């Protein structure tokens, strides 16, 4: 399974790869995937990677076609290969170069290979003799975007060619073969308004499905379905399917449905009428590039731009989303009232029974659901059942499924219905302070009865909210924010009573009641209120009435309230209607809640959370849909069109099934969602380009990757073992793309991290390594806390009083391009290069946890790409003008210190007049990459790579007395790479470089300042599969080193040879 490149005494091995999965195939019990130039084979039953091999080292794989026994064909670019596989091993039988771009390949009955190219040509290849038999061209000589073969022999072979002229051309290479003339066009499928990306034909149904740039899928009916002569066939357009919001890459026509994938990360399932059955969002919002189906095994496999591979059940994909079966409630069970009766509140018990409170004050129980849908079934994708009451609905005579538990006019019009976390007890509270508590009896497994165990008047007035803290304790909120903690105690006669433990008081607010509460170890109480604040109370100690909170986190969830609180693995989580999931840690001294990271959900209304097999499921509402989000897979599991969050609803998780009950239009609905709709063969990474990356390799078992990308997220992941990447957590906090990440080590297990990018936004984070990384637990062993966020718009100008300022408003499109931390006298400064050409310096105050802009300097007339610290108070900036400028920041940092820290103060004119000490023209254009290496005292080596493809290594001497920079030596290679150089890093006597040309070069250097000698020699080369490379990172691993290349994905390369000593 090793992938290696040898060059001299260096041996480079691929350790880990994550990039777009461009092709997939299902053969026997294995999934074959193409990622870059590599083939990987996974066992479907065990989900294990069993074999991998590098097929093409200079191009990507674009297609896989099944051959005879133990053979399959792969192609990409202008290359095609025959692969033999047996006993979890791979072998390249033969490899052939074609003169044109290959779009498709087909294994024929005579074991020749038909190859379709981008210029509408079909080549017949005898792979055993390794020779071209013939080459046939169509009379329509045009460039193709896609091509597909139909048929298993040369005489039956038909080509479906998708052109740039918005049509599909059907022709046969066996027509006019003997005459030597170009083959005629048999049919033209016209109707798309964009280029054709794919075409697929299913002989069983006689359907052709095409996809296009116009975001549509079209279905065409062939009559007869099995034409012997395609020129006599009749082809008609039968349906056009719109459901994707971006380009549609591929579609697969099956016996009962059509499945399409696209750029919008959506997989859509359509019936034969062209109606949308199901839609799933996969691969973390990235493009879905590949799909493979097996109707025999009932499996569907997808591959995305994030590098992940998902396996889905085909049966689940075919299930209808919304079959509604009305089941009316029997009228004989309810006393007739003068007003119309309908359900107002609903909860669901552990056994799947529902408790419903009606408008009339009846509390009823529904014991089973009639029809073909079972609430406890694990079958399903999404299923709905409607239970209707009142209105024009007729009532059923069946009384077996409905039971009246209690009736009182106290609970008419207004009542609260809350269920405990164990789903065995529920409480009902009235407008006059009356509380009823019911319990599901577990004494008999055959018949479980609902018994009333408490009937108690808890308050003199309205109870605004009731929260279950545990199976034996509840919290009530009365008028003026009075909170009462009650304990449910069992008496000697077997009955129960409520005992008041302690009272608390909520801080004043316009809407003064609790919306969620959490009791931790009977020691402290955490409450979330209607205005978005979280309060911490002490339960132990002296019993004081109306005790005030020890700590208040004001409006952490905005103004719409805290919807849920949960504790999991010693961390506290809160969610609210601001669309965020927040994580906290309880600190004993002082007794406070420490805010950690914030995760922004792709929907605004986050209502609840639960843990299922160590995966945190986030439940909420996106517009009119109820949604379930998985933190582990970073995607939506299901959507239910329930009408929105303003309704009574409840849920229960049983195994891999989530049952959701809700009220809509005075009717009761039940939906079932399969939580294991898909399994993951290979975990993913960023769905878009990775712009920046840092490696933590000290005090950890496995390297920790901290990356930021175009998807606006920061990911912390472990490169655990070969080809296994485990994401610890994802931070959704930035408003725009992330361009720079830098870390500063505070002490052995704590780091200060700064991240910045678009919208001129910079953030500070604290990373704590709590224990050894690399365990299998889902929650991170690295603790992350967001400390501060700063935007230039906020500090340079106060938006609400812009008329008071004479300085122009900072361009909101300004981006931070590079960051570098500076430590001086215990103070932390951040030097930043910006896209508007300004070199900015910010002071970070660790006490107030905020930034202050202390300097803004304009020297470069172009975008500053890189910033670095040469020494304690000397910095270097490099821009798109090819100039490297050295700066002395000593005067600036001495003038500004945390002692006179003021937030959002204006920059004085003297903080804008700083000029560089020296500047040097090193490249013709932009300096994309650099690295520094310290030589003797006051001597440094600066390696730079630019858009001009030149690699330059320059030796400088720092003249501390005159505060100047002296140029000593320089080595230059004008065409070190064939494209712009985007990554450089020193490691011992080696320099590693990479470029957009997807080459990684290892250079050995030698420098003698005294002898004025600088020698550089290329000693190794490696071809990476990562496209659009943005940079690289290098770290030592024993006597060797490792390299991580990042761009559209990441690739980690190990160098395993022993270094020679520098002579």
UniProtKB/TrEMBL annotation:
**Entry-linked InterPro entries:** Quino_amine_DH_bsu, tRNA_Anticodon_Mtase-Reg, WD40/YVTN_repeat-like_dom_sf, WD40_repeat_dom_sf, WD40_rpt
Q: Which domain of life is it from?
A: Eukaryota
Q: Which UniProt keywords apply?
A: Cytoplasm, Repeat, tRNA processing, WD repeat
Q: What is its main location?
A: cytoplasm
Cellular component per GO?
cytoplasm
**Localization in the cell:** Cytoplasm
Family matches, as PROSITE patterns: WD_REPEATS_2 (PS50082)
Q: Where are the WD repeats?
A: 189-223
GO BP, sorted A to Z: tRNA methylation
Q: Which family does it belong to?
A: Belongs to the WD repeat WDR6 family.
Q: What is the name listed in the Swiss-Prot or TrEMBL entry for this protein? A: tRNA (34-2'-O)-methyltransferase regulator WDR6
Q: Top-down, what is the taxonomic lineage of the species of origin?
A: Eukaryota, Metazoa, Ecdysozoa, Arthropoda, Hexapoda
């Amino acid at each position: 399974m090793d992938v290696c490149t040898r060059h001299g005494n260096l041996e480079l091995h691929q350790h880990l790869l994550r990039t777009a999965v461009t092709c997939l195939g299902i053969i026997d019990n294995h999934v074959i995937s193409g990622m870059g130039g590599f083939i990987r084979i996974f066992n479907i039953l065990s989900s294990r990677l069993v074999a991998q091999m590098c097929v093409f080292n200079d191009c990507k794989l674009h297609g896989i076609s099944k051959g005879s026994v133990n053979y399959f064909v792969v192609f990409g670019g202008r290359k095609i290969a025959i692969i033999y596989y047996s006993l979890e091993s791979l072998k390249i039988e033969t490899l052939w170069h074609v003169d044109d771009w290959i779009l498709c390949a087909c294994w024929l009955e005579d074991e020749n290979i038909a190859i379709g190219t981008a210029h509408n040509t079909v080549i017949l290849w005898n792979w055993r003799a390794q020779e071209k038999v013939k080459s046939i061209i169509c009379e329509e000589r045009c460039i193709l975007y896609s091509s597909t073969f139909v048929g298993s022999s040369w005489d039956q072979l038909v080509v479906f060619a998708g052109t740039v002229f918005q049509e599909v051309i059907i022709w046969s290479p066996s027509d006019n073969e003997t005459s030597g003339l170009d083959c005629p066009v048999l049919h033209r499928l016209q109707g798309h308004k964009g280029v054709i990306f794919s075409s697929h034909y299913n002989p069983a149904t006689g359907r052709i499905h095409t996809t296009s740039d116009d975001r549509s899928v079209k279905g065409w009916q062939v009559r007869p379905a099995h034409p012997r002569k395609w020129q006599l066939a009749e082809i008609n357009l039968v349906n056009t399917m719109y459901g994707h919001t971006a380009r549609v890459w591929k579609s697969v026509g099956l016996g009962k449905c059509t499945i399409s994938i696209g750029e919008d990360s959506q997989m859509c399932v359509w019936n034969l009428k062209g109606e949308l059955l199901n839609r799933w969002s996969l691969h973390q919002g990235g493009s879905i590039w590949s799909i493979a189906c097996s109707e025999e095994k009932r499996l569907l496999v997808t591959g995305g731009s994030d590098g992940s591979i998902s396996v889905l059940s085909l049966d689940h994909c075919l299930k209808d989303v919304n079959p509604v079966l009305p089941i009316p409630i029997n009228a004989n069970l309810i006393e007739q009232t003068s007003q119309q009766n309908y359900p107002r509140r609903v909860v669901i018990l552990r056994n799947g029974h529902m408790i419903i409170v009606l408008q009339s004050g009846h509390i009823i129980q529904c014991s089973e659901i009639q029809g073909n849908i079972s609430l406890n079934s694990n079958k399903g994708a999404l299923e709905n059942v409607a239970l209707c009451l009142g209105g024009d609905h007729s009532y059923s005579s069946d009384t077996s499924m409905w039971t009246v538990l209690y009736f009182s006019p106290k609970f008419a019009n207004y009542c609260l219905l809350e269920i405990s976390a164990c789903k065995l007890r529920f409480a009902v509270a009235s407008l006059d302070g009356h509380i009823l508590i019911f319990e599901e009896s577990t004494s008999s497994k055959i018949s479980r009865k609902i018994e009333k165990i408490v009937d108690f008047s808890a308050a003199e007035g309205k109870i605004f909210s009731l929260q279950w803290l545990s199976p034996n304790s509840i919290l009530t909120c009365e008028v003026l924010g009075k909170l009462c903690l009650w304990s449910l105690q069992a008496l000697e006669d077997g009955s129960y009573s409520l005992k008041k433990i302690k009272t608390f008081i909520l801080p004043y607010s316009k809407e003064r009641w609790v919306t969620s509460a959490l009791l931790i170890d009977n020691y402290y109480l955490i409450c979330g209120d209607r205005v978005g604040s979280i309060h911490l109370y002490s339960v132990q100690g002296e019993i004081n009435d109306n005790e005030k909170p020890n700590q208040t986190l004001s409006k952490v969830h905005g103004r719409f309230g805290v919807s849920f609180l949960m504790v999991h693995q010693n961390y506290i989580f809160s969610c609210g209607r601001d669309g965020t999931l927040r994580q906290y840690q309880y600190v004993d001294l002082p007794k406070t809640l420490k805010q950690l990271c914030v995760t922004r959900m792709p929907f605004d209304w986050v209502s609840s959370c639960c843990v299922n097999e160590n995966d945190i499921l986030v439940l909420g509402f996106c517009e009119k849909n109820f949604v379930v989000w998985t933190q582990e897979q970073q995607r939506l599991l299901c959507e239910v069109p329930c009408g929105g969050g303003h309704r009574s609803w409840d849920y229960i998780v049983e195994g891999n099934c989530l049952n959701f009950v809700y009220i809509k239009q005075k009717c009761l609905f039940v939906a079932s969602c399969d939580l294991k709709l898909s399994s993951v063969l290979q975990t993913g990474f960023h769905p878009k380009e990775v712009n920046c990356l840092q490696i933590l390799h000290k005090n950890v078992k496995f390297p920790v990757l901290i990356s930021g990308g175009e998807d606006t997220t920061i990911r912390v992941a472990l490169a655990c073992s070969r080809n296994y990447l485990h994401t610890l957590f994802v931070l959704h906090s930035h408003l725009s793309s992330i361009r720079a990440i830098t870390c500063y080590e505070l002490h052995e297990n704590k780091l200060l991290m700064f991240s910045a990018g678009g919208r001129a936004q910079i953030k500070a984070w604290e990373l704590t390594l709590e224990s050894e990384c690399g365990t299998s637990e889902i929650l991170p062993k690295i603790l992350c806390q967001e400390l501060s966020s700063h935007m230039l718009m906020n500090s340079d100008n106060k938006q609400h009083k812009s008329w008071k300022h004479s300085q122009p408003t900072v361009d909101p499109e300004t981006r931070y391009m590079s960051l570098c931390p500076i430590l001086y006298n215990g103070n932390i400064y951040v030097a930043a290069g910006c896209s508007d050409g300004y070199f900015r310096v910010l002071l970070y105050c660790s006490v107030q946890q905020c930034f202050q802009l202390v300097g803004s300097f304009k020297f470069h007339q172009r975008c500053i790409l890189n910033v670095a610290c040469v020494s304690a108070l000397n910095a270097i900036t490099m821009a798109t003008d090819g100039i490297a400028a050295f700066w002395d920041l000593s005067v600036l940092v001495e003038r500004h210190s945390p002692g006179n820290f003021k937030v959002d103060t204006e920059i004085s004119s003297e903080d804008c007049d700083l000029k560089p000490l020296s500047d040097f023209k090193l490249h013709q254009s932009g300096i994309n990459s650099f690295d520094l290496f310290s030589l003797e005292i006051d001597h440094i080596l600066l390696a730079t790579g630019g858009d001009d493809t030149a690699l330059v290594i320059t030796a400088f001497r720092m003249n501390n007395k005159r505060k100047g920079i002296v140029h000593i030596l320089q080595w230059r290679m004008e065409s070190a790479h064939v494209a712009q150089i985007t990554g450089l890093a020193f490691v011992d006597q080696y320099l590693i470089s990479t470029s957009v040309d997807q080459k990684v070069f290892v250079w050995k250097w030698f420098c003698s300042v005294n002898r004025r000698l600088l020698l550089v020699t290329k000693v190794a080369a490696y071809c990476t599969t990562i496209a659009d490379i943005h940079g690289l990172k290098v770290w030592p691993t024993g006597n060797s080193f490792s390299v991580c290349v990042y761009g559209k994905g990441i690739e980690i390369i190990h160098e395993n040879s022993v270094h020679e000593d520098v002579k």
